[in-house]
Every structure is written in structure tokens, then in C-alpha cells.
């Protein structure tokens, strides 16, 4: 089994398909059937041809010996033996026989004295037998039938007795060999014909089998592309028809489930959007009141001031959450739009940090002002930078670093790369696949934090809206790194390259 697996591993993928396997299986079955049938037919035909030839020769040889034995005196002389041999040959002139007669030490042969093919075993068998003894031999690639026949006479009580005279016959079997070779050639041709028919039948069978399989593959691909209404035509009542029917039932059930999920998701999105919209007006009023109360908090007693501060902070967090939910609902509704403006990225980063008082908390590595300019939506890029840097400051350890560089993929494609790193514990393996999901908070200690769990999700949506990419990873020495890649226009990238001295 291990050998077969190892052999299959070296077979090209194109030859491992169902069509190839069907063709090979049919061919092997055809070859095995043709060879086995041919072998049986060959054995029976060869045995029949040789048996018939052997029986005919022995019968003719016995008839000839019986005819000359009557006239051969006992004991015979040398001339009597030669006469008997000549008479046997004369009666079978066209057979190509060679005859040898022996009686004791006397020998007579014709037409030649070459009888080396008579084996000692044959001679011993003839000396004790009362019937013909035969043997097939091959000399220099030519087949021969060797027959030894003792001459007997009837004694008292009509019992057969040996006379001591033995006649040997050597007959070439070239004709029989030609028949056998013709049978081998016919079997070979039949095997080739069977193999061709098997391949043709295999191709036809494979076509019939693969048609529904290919239809199933196309339907599966369309379903993977989102076309859940795809169905297969069910023909017949075989296993493939059952498979097509099962696929249709599965597709119908999946379509119903997905439709229900989409309906529930749409309801949830509408609910979030409606609730967020309804909360904005009272929140605006609450924020205005808390702003007024914050100004008077210093003149109030301590307990009242702390209570007002808690209300103000809660109102502020709720306002942020509602704004985030409104933003997410815009993305879900496809209503989010870019208001592009050409900006200097380095100056913009500095402005974002300064507006939030983070200049002394973040180490920056930025290109010189005027080097890297591109078209982005300033408001959305500000949200991206604020979320990433704020996340690093809240959940990481100093130093927090922000770097910017240009990465080229091809001569006409470049990216502005923004990296935010911290020196904290990093992101756990369990949290890494979900870090940009909505409402996800890595770690139980963050579930009650002021974060809504939407910041990184909004960051990813804003980056994708720009046609960019965002990713998170852990640094080898500890800490996390968030990387944002924004596509640069050719003119912006070329200007950045010229300013930094790189060839574009």
C-alpha cells in the first residue's frame, strides 16, 4: 500500500483524474481478459494441433510397421532391417520422416544416420513398453516429434510379446509450429483490438460519468461565488442522480438559511442605525447640559462635583459609541464616501498627534515635509491614525512608535506604509484572527474598558475604503505592530522617490 501511494505521488496531476483512471481501469481489464482468454485458447488450440498431429503420425507409423513386420524374418539380418526401414519410408515419402530400426546390436536407418535426438530415457522406455513412446524435442530452434515403437507378435493365448525389433521415427513439426505462431499472432492482434475497444468504451463511459460530475463542479463554484439559486438537472436513478438530488436539497436549504440570515442581519443593521439616530438628539442635549455643569462643577461641593464628573464621562463615552455605531451603519449601508484631498502625510501625522496631545508620548520616524504627498480623505485617515495610536497607548507599553515609508511592488505600483508599534505584551494567538472584528475585545480585562470594540473595525473599513490594507502582528522582541498600506498615485510615488533619491 505504501508503495502504491509513493508511486501515485509521482504521477502528474493531469493523469490522476477520473477520466484517466477509468481509461486505465478499462484498458487493464481488457488486456487481462484478452490475455487470459488468449492464453486458454492458445493452450487448448496448441494441445489440439499437436495432439492431432501426434496421433496421426503414430497411427501412420504403426500401420507402416504392421505392413512390413509380416515380411521381416526373426531374427532379422542387417539387410532385413534396412529393407524394413526403406519400406516404411517408401510408404510415407512426402512426410519428411527419418526412420531407425534396431535389433540387438544391429542398426539400420534412412535417409540419414543422425539420430542424436533419441534420448536415453526414450530408449529405456521403448525397451520395456509394448506401445508407442513419443517425445517432443527442439533442436536448433526446430521442433521434432520422436516416436519409438516396439514390434510385437502374438504368442500362445493371443498374448502380445516383444520381438526385440524396435523402430524409431523422427518427424519435423515445422507446419505445426507455423500453426502455433499464427495463433500467437492472432491472439496479439485480438489483444490490441480489445485494448482499442476498451479505451473507446472507457472514454464513452468516462464522458457519461464525468458529465454530471462536471456539472456538479460548475454548480459548486457558482454557489461559492454567491449564486445560491443554482440547481442541477437530475437524470436517471443511479448514484450520480442521487448525488445531484442531494446537492439540490442542500443548495435549497442553504439558500433558505442564508436568506434568513441576511434578513436578520438587515434587521439588526436597521435597528442599530435607527437606535443610533434616535440617540443622537438626546445625547446632544445631554452633552450640552454636561458642558454647562462642568463649568460650574468647581463651585459645587465635592460629592456633587464627582457625580457630575461621572455623568459627564458616561455621556462622553455614550456619545463616542453612538458615533461609532452610526459610522458602522454607513459602511453597512454602502453610504460611506471619500472626500479626497491632497495632503502631506508627514505633516498630517504630526497634526493628528498634536491635536490629541500625544506628541511627547509617541516617537515618530517620518519623511521630510513635502516629500510624500497623496490624495486621501483627511477625516477618515485621522480616525485611522487616532485609533491605532490610541490603542497602542491604552493597551501597550512605551515606547510607542509611529513610522512611515514607501514600498514598491512594481514599477507602477507603490504603497505608503504606516506602522504603529508598542512595547506591550502583544496580541494573543486566540485574539489575532478576530482583532479587526466588531465589538471584539482581546482579553477579559478589556471587556469593561471605555473602548467600544469598534475602533479597529472602523479603522479597517476606512483603510479598505481607500483601497488599502491593514494587518496586525507581534514583534519578535515583544509588543504589537499595526501596519497600514495606502496606495500611492504614480505622480505621488515618483515625487517621493525623487525626493529620497530612489529610482522609480
TrEMBL record:
The keyword Transferase applies. Its EC number is 2.7.13.3. The chain crosses the membrane at residues 190-210. Keywords: Kinase, Membrane, Phosphoprotein, Transferase, Transmembrane, Transmembrane helix, Two-component regulatory system. It is found in: Cell membrane. Residues 207-259 form the HAMP domain. This is histidine kinase.
Amino acid at each position: 500500500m505504501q508503495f502504491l501511494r509513493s508511486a501515485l505521488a509521482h504521477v502528474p496531476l493531469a493523469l490522476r483524474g477520473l477520466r484517466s483512471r477509468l481509461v486505465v481501469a478499462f484498458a487493464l481489464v481488457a488486456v487481462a481478459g484478452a490475455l487470459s482468454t488468449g492464453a486458454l485458447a492458445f493452450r487448448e488450440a496448441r494441445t489440439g494441433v499437436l495432439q492431432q498431429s501426434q496421433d496421426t503420425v503414430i497411427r501412420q507409423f504403426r500401420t507402416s510397421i504392421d505392413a512390413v513386420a509380416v515380411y521381416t524374418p526373426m531374427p532379422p539380418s542387417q539387410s532385413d532391417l534396412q529393407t524394413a526401414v526403406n519400406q516404411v519410408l517408401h510408404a510415407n515419402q512426402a512426410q519428411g520422416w527419418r526412420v531407425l530400426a534396431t535389433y540387438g546390436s544391429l542398426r539400420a536407418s534412412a535417409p540419414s544416420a543422425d539420430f542424436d535426438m533419441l534420448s536415453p530415457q526414450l530408449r529405456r522406455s521403448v525397451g520395456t513398453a509394448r506401445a508407442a513412446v513419443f517425445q517432443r524435442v527442439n533442436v536448433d530452434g526446430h521442433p521434432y516429434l520422436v516416436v519409438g515403437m516396439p514390434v510385437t507378435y502374438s504368442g500362445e493365448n493371443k498374448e502380445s510379446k516383444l520381438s526385440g525389433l524396435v523402430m524409431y521415427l523422427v518427424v519435423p513439426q515445422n507446419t505445426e509450429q507455423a500453426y502455433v505462431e499464427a495463433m500467437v499472432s492472432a491472439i496479439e492482434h485480438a489483444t490490441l483490438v480489445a485494448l482499442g475497444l476498451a479505451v473507446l468504451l472507457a472514454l464513452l463511459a468516462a464522458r457519461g460519468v464525468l458529465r454530471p460530475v462536471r456539472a456538479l463542479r460548475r454548480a459548486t463554484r457558482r454557489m461559492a461565488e454567491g449564486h445560491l439559486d443554482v440547481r442541477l438537472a437530475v437524470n436517471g436513478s443511479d448514484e450520480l442522480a442521487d448525488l445531484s438530488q442531494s446537492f439540490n436539497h442542500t443548495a435549497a436549504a442553504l439558500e433558505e438559511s442564508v436568506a434568513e440570515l441576511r434578513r436578520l442581519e438587515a434587521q439588526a443593521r436597521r435597528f442599530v442605525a435607527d437606535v443610533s439616530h434616535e440617540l443622537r438628539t438626546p445625547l446632544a442635549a445631554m452633552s450640552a447640559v454636561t458642558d454647562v455643569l462642568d463649568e460650574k462643577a468647581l463651585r459645587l461641593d465635592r460629592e456633587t462635583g464627582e457625580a457630575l464628573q461621572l455623568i459627564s464621562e458616561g455621556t462622553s463615552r455614550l456619545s463616542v459609541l453612538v458615533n461609532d455605531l452610526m459610522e458602522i451603519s454607513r459602511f453597512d449601508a454602502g453610504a460611506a464616501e471619500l472626500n479626497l484631498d491632497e495632503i502631506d502625510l508627514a505633516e498630517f501625522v504630526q497634526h493628528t498627534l498634536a491635536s490629541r496631545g500625544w506628541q511627547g508620548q509617541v516617537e515618530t520616524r517620518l519623511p521630510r515635509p513635502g516629500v510624500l504627498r497623496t490624495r486621501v480623505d483627511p477625516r477618515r485617515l485621522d480616525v485611522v491614525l487616532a485609533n491605532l495610536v490610541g490603542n497602542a497607548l491604552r493597551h501597550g507599553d512605551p515606547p510607542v512608535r509611529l513610522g512611515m515609508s514607501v514600498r514598491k511592488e512594481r514599477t507602477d505600483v507603490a504603497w505608503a506604509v504606516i506602522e504603529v508599534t508598542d512595547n506591550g505584551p502583544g496580541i494573543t494567538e486566540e485574539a489575532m484572527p478576530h482583532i479587526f472584528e466588531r465589538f471584539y475585545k482581546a482579553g477579559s480585562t478589556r471587556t469593561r474598558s471605555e473602548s467600544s470594540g469598534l475602533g479597529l473595525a472602523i479603522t479597517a473599513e476606512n483603510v479598505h475604503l481607500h483601497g488599502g490594507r491593514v494587518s496586525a502582528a507581534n514583534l519578535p522582541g515583544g509588543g504589537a505592530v499595526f501596519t497600514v498600506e495606502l496606495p500611492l498615485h504614480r505622480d505621488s510615488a515618483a515625487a517621493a522617490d525623487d525626493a529620497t533619491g530612489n529610482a522609480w
